[in-house]
Specification:
The complex is a heterodimer of chains A (about 325) and B (about 220).
Chain A (H helix, E strand, L loop, with lengths): L7 H19 L1 H10 L19 E13 L9 E6 L2 E5 L5 E6 L2 E10 L2 E10 L2 E7 L2 E5 L2 E13 L7 E2 L2 E2 L12 E12 L2 E10 L8 E2 L3 E13 L11 E13 L2 E3 L2 E3 L4 E13 L3 E15 L9 E12 L10
Antiparallel strand pairs in A: 1-2, 1-3, 1-21, 2-5, 3-4, 4-7, 5-6, 7-9, 8-9, 9-12, 10-11, 12-13, 13-15, 14-17, 15-16, 16-19, 17-18, 19-20, 20-21
Chain B lengths: L1 H26 L2 H32 L6 E2 L4 E12 L4 H13 L3 E7 L4 E6 L7 H10 L3 E11 H8 L4 E3 L8 H9 L13 E2 L6 E2 L8
Antiparallel strand pairs in B: 1-2, 2-4, 2-5, 3-4, 3-6, 7-8
Classes of the chains: A mainly beta (about 325), B alpha+beta (about 220).
């Protein structure tokens, strides 16, 4: 009979293991969610790394990103809505150097079936924040064409919550906004643009060290590509600077490593996701706005009970500000 | 006119000197006579030097960069036409606009994206060099190509700038930093289009505030 009534300690241990498995199973999702809005992405709408930033210029881009994940292979029939409203700032202290900062305010809403019936959980607040610097290592300009190759490096700061809970217990990892650690981030971005077409590509890597709780998210690798073409005006007039409409297609490939819990790899985490994002944007000399819809093409996720993404909408508005110059002694 | 003035001065000096000498000799005091002579000589030197300085100032003010075209009697300003490599979009042009606002004496500019040309009109009193133009384009992140600097009449410039594609910078020299920042950054460019252009008077070369109103 003794094995029918587990001791309090063993019950707690089993609960811990279950919780750890749950955390591990869903740990890759917030990375995907964060990745979907972080600036190091490979397309003009879903990324800002290739934005040209002039000296003494401040670029403010604000996203509005509602996303839905409703493809659940389990009986829980989970539905996850996630809304991000993240501002990105890029400032140029010199013509070659740009400093980027991205904040990720967000709100998540989850509903799922449980033995107690269908329940809803929600969480809101600030996610991890990203700061990085980009330096134009190589640039070549022709008449009506430009090529730029820029390495970048920075860190994700643990400004997001990573241990939030409600009356049902700790929230699943994909509703947690942060990793709980300072994560180095680096990469390379390339832009080739003509007056008619634009090609952007980037490759970035985020290293996730262990958080203070002993939990370590898998490292994240991204590569993105974007192609856009000007459609209005179809033929560019010689005179003046007309507002323009561009349409195009972006694609994002994301590979997340497995998480580590208590020093052990969790094979039910990590995976490969490939997205396509058709997009359109309207550009004026002083502001730009646009939208793209991100649709998963391949979701090769490890583990049997993962929640698969359905779509994410990207809406953004961008404005350009003139800023005061740095004092002479601080210029370089 | 300068030589006339100098000869006049010389005559003045000589006449004054003779009068002083006559007075001193009539008093019969050789020591007083020497002091007066020195004073007169010093005054003469100061006067001649002052005249030379004034003449050089006049010639500088009447030079080709002073905003006055004496041949036609019409005020002019400097127009710079810059070919820009890498000018690919409105976004790219805005980078240059940001830098132009930092440049002294810019009053209006235009971007011809299809032709890869930025045209900048400076205030009539502002001198500008090719190096200045290159610096603006490079700090915006692009590469300058051919640069042409020409003098155009203010009347023609104002007529051009009334066109659709020109942006006229607000003249906010006396404004606070915050006001200037707000005006520049929130699209009030065109509201200030016809205000506060310093057009030099064709006779004196002195700037006349708001003179472009008369041309409209």
């Amino acid at each position: 009979m003794a094995h029918d009534v587990p001791s309090r300690t063993s019950l707690l241990a089993r609960r811990c293991v279950k919780l750890q498995k749950l955390l591990a199973a869903f740990a890759v999702v917030p990375i995907v969610v964060l990745a979907a809005v972080r600036p190091g992405r490979g397309a003009p709408i879903t990324f800002v790394t290739a934005l040209p930033v002039a000296q003494d210029q401040l670029v403010w881009r604000n996203y509005f990103n509602p996303g839905y994940k409703g493809d659940d292979p389990t009986s829980a029939d989970r539905d996850l809505w996630n809304l991000l409203y993240n501002p990105v700032f890029a400032w140029g202290p010199s013509a070659d150097l740009a400093i980027f900062a991205s904040l990720t305010p967000q709100y998540s809403f989850l509903s799922e079936n449980t033995p107690q019936g269908r329940i809803s959980q929600s969480a809101g607040g600030l996610g991890d924040s990203l700061i990085f610097a980009r330096y134009t290592a190589y640039s070549k300009d022709w008449l009506g064409k430009t090529l730029r190759i820029d390495p970048l490096a920075g860190v994700y700061l643990p400004t997001g919550w990573y241990n939030k809970s409600d009356i049902y217990g700790r929230l699943p990892q994909y509703m947690q906004g942060g990793s709980g650690s300072v994560d180095p981030y680096f990469g390379l971005t390339t832009m080739y643009k003509t007056q008619l077409e634009e090609f952007d590509w980037d490759i970035t890597y985020r290293y996730n060290p262990a958080a203070s709780s002993g939990y370590q998210l898998g490292n994240s690798f991204h590569t993105d590509f974007a192609y856009y073409r000007r459609v209005v005006p179809w033929i560019l007039p010689d005179q003046g600077l007309d507002n323009q409409i561009w349409v195009g297609l972006e694609t994002n490939l994301i590979r997340d490593g497995t998480n580590r819990v208590g020093g052990m790899n969790d094979p039910a985490t990590g995976g490969l996701v490939w997205y396509l994002d058709p997009g359109i944007f309207y550009a004026t000399p002083f502001w730009t706005t646009g939208m793209a819809i991100q649709v998963p093409v391949i979701q090769n996720l490890n583990g049997p009970d993962r929640l698969y993404g359905s779509f994410r909408l990207f809406l953004y508005f961008e404005y350009y500000f003139m800023m005061p110059s740095l004092p002479k002694w601080a210029q370089f | 006119m300068g030589s006339v003035l100098i000869s006049f001065n010389w005559n003045f000096h000589r006449d004054t000197l003779s009068a002083e000498l006559g007075q001193a000799m009539s008093r019969g005091n050789p020591r007083t006579m020497g002091k007066k002579k020195t004073r007169v000589l010093a005054l003469t030197v100061v006067f001649v030097l002052a005249h030379l300085c004034f003449r050089s100032y006049l010639s500088a003010a009447q030079g080709p960069d002073a905003g006055v075209n004496h041949g036609k009697g019409e005020p002019t300003l400097t127009r710079v036409r810059i070919q820009v490599r890498g000018l690919v979009s409105p976004r790219a042009a805005q980078n240059i606009f940001i830098r132009l606002d930092k440049q002294k004496g810019v009053r209006a500019f235009k971007c011809d994206l299809g032709a890869n040309i930025i045209t900048v009109d400076f205030q009539p009193y502002q001198q500008v060099s090719k190096a200045d133009a290159e610096r603006v384009i490079r700090s915006a992140g692009w590469t300058p190509g051919t640069i042409e600097i020409e003098r155009v009449s203010v009347r023609k410039a104002l007529s051009d700038e009334a066109g659709r594609y020109w942006y006229v910078l607000p003249q906010l020299e006396g404004a606070s930093g915050l006001k200037r920042w707000l005006v520049i950054n929130f699209g009030l460019w065109t509201i200030y289009k016809d205000l506060n252009v310093d057009v030099p008077d064709s006779n004196s070369g002195a700037p006349v505030q708001g003179a472009n109103k008369a041309h409209d």
